[in-house]
Write a structure and sequence with these properties.
By secondary structure, the chain is mainly alpha-helical. The protein contains 22 helices and two strands. Helix content is about 75%, strand content about 0%.
């Protein structure tokens, strides 16, 4: 089936919205016009994005414009995140921007700037996850920097402009390393491929990866991990992240943490696969483990130390990106699955929390947690959602991050990486303490009488309700098609092991890695989608280790 029309809708809606917004005069154009264009754009992204995601979930290998764009089971997971989180944060933008206009924080030109660059941000992320051309991948990631810098600095305050400059300088310098890695892979592939023009396409490079120079591929992966890891917020290249997330409007922070960081992880994974196919998985896994453990260990204590709500959430993003890197560093079927599930779970959860931070700021007019208390008594719906979101972010059941973190622990046990597990578990305990303290202080504390009672508008609550429902659903039972796509994506990541990994049952392989003697037959991936069945498997695992 030809998916060109759907793909054109997917990229055309945000790009067309940006062009239309750019040509409208800011002084004479009502905010409602920008909002209408924005809503139409979001509808197109959601419809086309979910349609392409489902098609990829059903097994279609989608190529558009020859080999320039490719949506496989791996990129479909990240496209699905965009198709869900971008519309949710986009709808949340409507009441949020309205509040900022009424509060005299935004002028008409700033409103135009916000909607224009929001559209370009979504457009560049779609290109990043769907590009099959490795040069285009780099260009798309750089384009996300150029579009979001104007969103980070949209308030034009001293702190916002400082954060924007820091963001563009650090990320541009970091992504330059990604460019070096990309060019090394291209030059290496061009030397061994019969048609050098095909050396820019990832799907063409992969079969030839074993023939490429080992030393150059190792250097290229280090450059890619540093360069695109900067964009992902991995330590020590994370320095832009707390400032940018805290100074940007809350919907932008939600999109940055929920989607952009995962897009960068996807690019790192593409280079991880090529390197593992060339030199084996030990080297790239070691690099990922080092970056991941450092990120988790550093960010966990920063989460506990911060008293600024959005900076605390920003450092939590650094910590969770570290967990994702640890999962891929541990490797094996279970580690790969854990990393992919955590990408989805954290993306949705962090988008939820940043939107809720916007609600809190609308009520309390501050990000200082020492001045925020009694949210449940001031804004009951926001307070309940906030407490639930904190529990979800802490990895409590029955939320999605509990499942991914348990899978990570089981992967570590299977791989016997005990030192990694000890460091990560200590860091998780510190983060749990920080989030529980945030619940008891901010959500359940005694509210000041000066704060007006009453919740934010229904439109400012609806996206958070949807996101929390999805996080809860994924924590209770992974839908069969999603579980199947995660398995297919995991097989793509493990494609360096040969056809057996690409065509096998990764869930069964994961159980085998844990040493189960009587491994349950999984004729259908959906049989693993129910968490109660996962719990049964875990009980069998515990019996084996006893």
């Amino acid at each position: 089936m030809d998916y060109t029309f759907l793909f054109l809708i997917l990229i055309g809606c945000p790009f067309g919205a940006a062009i239309l917004t750019a040509v409208l005069p800011s002084k004479s154009t009502p905010r409602a016009v920008y909002s209408g264009i924005h809503v139409l754009e979001l509808a197109g992204v959601a419809a086309a994005g979910l349609a392409l995601t489902v098609a990829a979930f059903m097994g279609d290998d989608i190529f558009v414009f020859g080999e320039w764009f490719h949506i496989d089971g791996l990129s479909a997971l990240f496209l699905g995140l965009i198709a869900i989180i971008a519309p949710c944060t986009g709808i949340y933008s409507l009441p949020y921007i309205k509040h900022d206009v009424e509060d005299k924080k935004l002028e008409p030109s700033q409103v135009k700037q916000y909607y224009l660059f929001y559209s370009l941000f979504v457009f560049s992320m779609i290109l990043a996850v769907s590009s099959n051309n490795i040069i285009m991948m780099w260009v798309s990631v750089e384009a996300t920097t150029l579009s979001t810098v104007f969103l980070v600095g949209v308030y034009r305050t001293k702190l916002a402009l400082e954060a924007a400059w820091k963001y563009v300088i650090v990320c541009t310098a970091g992504v330059a390393f990604g460019m070096f890695g990309t060019l090394l892979v291209y030059a290496n592939a061009a030397d061994v491929m019969a048609d050098a023009h095909q050396a820019v396409f990832w799907t063409e490079i992969l079969p030839n990866a074993p023939l490429m120079d080992h030393s150059l591929m190792m250097i290229a992966f280090v450059f890619a991990a540093i360069g695109f890891g900067t964009k992902a917020g991995l330590f020590p290249m994370h320095t832009w992240l707390p400032d940018a997330h805290s100074e940007a409007p809350s919907p932008v922070s939600a999109l940055l943490s929920g989607v952009l960081l995962k897009c960068a992880i996807l690019i790192v994974l593409r280079f991880f696969i090529l390197t593992a196919a060339n030199v084996g998985d030990t080297f790239p896994q070691t690099v990922m483990l080092i970056l991941g453990v450092l990120s988790v260990a550093y960010a966990a204590f920063e989460v506990y130390r911060q008293n600024d709500l959005k900076r605390k959430l920003a450092y939590s993003s650094c910590e969770n990106i570290g967990i994702i890197a640890v999962c891929f560093g541990i490797g094996g079927p279970l580690g790969i699955i854990a990393g992919l599930v955590h990408c989805i779970a954290h993306g949705l959860t962090k988008a939820l929390m940043f939107c809720l931070s916007g609600n809190v700021m609308m009520k309390y007019r501050t990000r200082d947690l020492s001045k925020i208390s009694g949210i449940i008594s001031v804004a009951p719906v926001t307070g309940v959602l906030f407490a639930a979101g904190c529990l979800a972010l802490a990895g409590f059941p029955p939320f999605a991050m509990f499942l991914s973190e348990m899978l990570m622990i089981l992967a570590g046990v299977a791989a016997q990486t005990w030192w990694v597990l000890v460091i990560v578990l200590v860091a998780l305990v510190v983060v749990i303490m920080a989030l529980i303290r945030m619940i008891t202080g901010a959500a359940l504390g005694r509210a000041s009488e000066e704060i007006g009672r009453g919740d934010v508008s229904a439109l400012a609550l609806a996206p958070e309700v949807i996101l929390l429902a999805v996080v809860l659903l994924l924590g209770v039972a992974l839908p069969g098609p999603l579980a199947g796509s995660i398995e297919e994506a995991g097989a793509i990541v493990m494609s360096y092991e040969g056809e057996n990994s690409a065509n096998g049952d990764l869930f069964a392989d994961a159980l085998a890695a844990l040493g189960t003697q009587d491994q349950p037959e999984l004729d259908d991936v959906s049989e693993m989608s129910d968490v109660s069945e996962v719990s049964d498997v875990q009980e069998e695992i515990e019996e084996v280790f006893e």
